[in-house]
Structure formats: structure tokens, C-alpha cells
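Action item from last week, closing it out:
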Amino acid sequence: MGDFVFLCVVNAYSVGRIKRQGLRMRQNKYRRYLLLIGIAAICNSILIGQIRERSALNELDMAVVKEETFRNHVLNEEMIMYMQKSDAPEKAAGIFLAEKISAFCGLRKPYTTKKIQKAEHKWRQNPMFDEYMDVCDSIWRDLKYFPVPKSATDDSLTVSYGDSWMGERTFGGKRGHEGTDLMANENIPGLYPIISMTDGVVVNKGWLPKGGWRIGILSPSGGYYYYAHLSDYADIEEGDEIKAGELLGYMGDSGYGEEGTTGMFPVHLHVGIYIYPDGKEISINPYWIMRYLEKFKLEAAYS
């Protein structure tokens, strides 16, 4: 009887040991499977990234500039600071291009000159690169100054603005807002001077029902800069060549009616920016350009 009990105990111990060894073997097997799955996932991620990058290089064409993602060209705070630190507005086109490269090719942050140059080198393989760069130039290369100078004597005379790109407007029919409104802190027409953001030629001046007294400047690289709702003009005429920082007129509340209509909305400046990649007008979101130009403000006497 004692031997039988002993054998039972030994047998139970052996069975338990075998089960534990089997469990450990299965666990080790599962761990190997999980490790292999993890390695495969990493390799797959790298491969997919390379495929997407190569695909992005191949997809660059002029249709890209008509897409809302390009026209809106959202810039994060890091990119805005990176651009501002360059202290050279004429380099903005190349920096903006880097942001587009990063979006298409998955350039990791933080942005560095080395990473940008590496990504740009890859994108230059596309035959459409130069044409795309010309479009970026027309938006960014000629920018010099924020359109509303700082007051040299009164810090309270400021402007505020938000990203109202494609916000709904109804005057003259339902439409999207193709610009950025710089709102005057003091609601006084004729107080805030408006200067040109770029060098260029005055190609439009006069009344528009939606824009009121407006002026349009064509910059050397082909961008069209539209300033609307003015109260009055500086001594300039269509065909005149102007320099960045030159006075265009004064902020007002004109528009939304027949010539001379005022007071339909608060005093502000509507800034519109347009490009012509295929001869047809395409609007660009000015909000991010205003954010970039915040660092580049002139001072002026307000009277």
C-alpha cells in the first residue's frame, strides 16, 4: 500500500513536471512567434514608408497646387519658428517647400537643414520639381513685411486675426472666404496705414462691390496680393511700380454695396493672395503667411 502511494506521488510529480515543461515550451514558442511578428511589423512599416515616399515623389504634378491641402498649406508652430529664425524672407519659398516635402515624404521632426536638404534632394528627382518650385516662389519669395505696421507711439493700436479660410460668406451669393481679415483694435476708418507686403506693380485699383476700395499688386515672381475695404488710397495709380513697405492706403470699412458704401462691417483689412499656375486664378490661404510675417513689421506714425 505504501509503495502504491509512493508511485502515485512520483507519477503525479512527473506528470506535473512534464506539463510545466510543455507549458514553458509553448510559452517560449509563443514568444518566438511574437518576436517574429514584431520584426515583420517593423520591416513592413519601413517598406510601406519607402513605398509611400517613392509614390509621393511620383505624384508631384501641377494638379497638386489646386488641391485644398496645398492651397491651405497649414504650417505648425515649429515650422513657423524655423522660417522666422531664418531672418531672410526671400528664403521662405525654399523653407515652405521643405514643409511640403516633409508632408509628402514623412520627414521627421524636428526640422534641420540637413534633413530638409536630404528630402529636397530626393524630390528633385521628379521632372515637375522646377515647375512646382516656381509656384512656391510666386507665393513666398517676394514677401517682406506684415501689411499693417506697428504704431510708433501707441501700443494699443493693434490688429487681430484668425484662420477664416473658406469660412462662409453670403453677400453676393454663398461662397467661401478667400482671405484673412485683419481686424482693427480701434474701429476708426483711416487710422491704420496699409503697406505693400512685396515689391510689385499696381495692376488693380478702384471699387468692387464685395471688396470696397481695393488695390491689387502683382509681385515679381507672379503672386497677386489683394488689399480690400480701404478707406482711402496713397498717391499711387495703376501701372506704378512700388517697393515692399510702401504706403498703399488706410484701413476702412468700405464695400458690400454700390460705390461708396461704408459701415456694413467693422474696420478691417481683407488680405487675399492668388497664384496662376496654369493661367487660371487660384486663391491661397493668407493666414499662415500673416503668421510668418508677424516678425517682419515696420513702424509707422499713426495720425
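Closing note: The longest strand covers residues 224-233.
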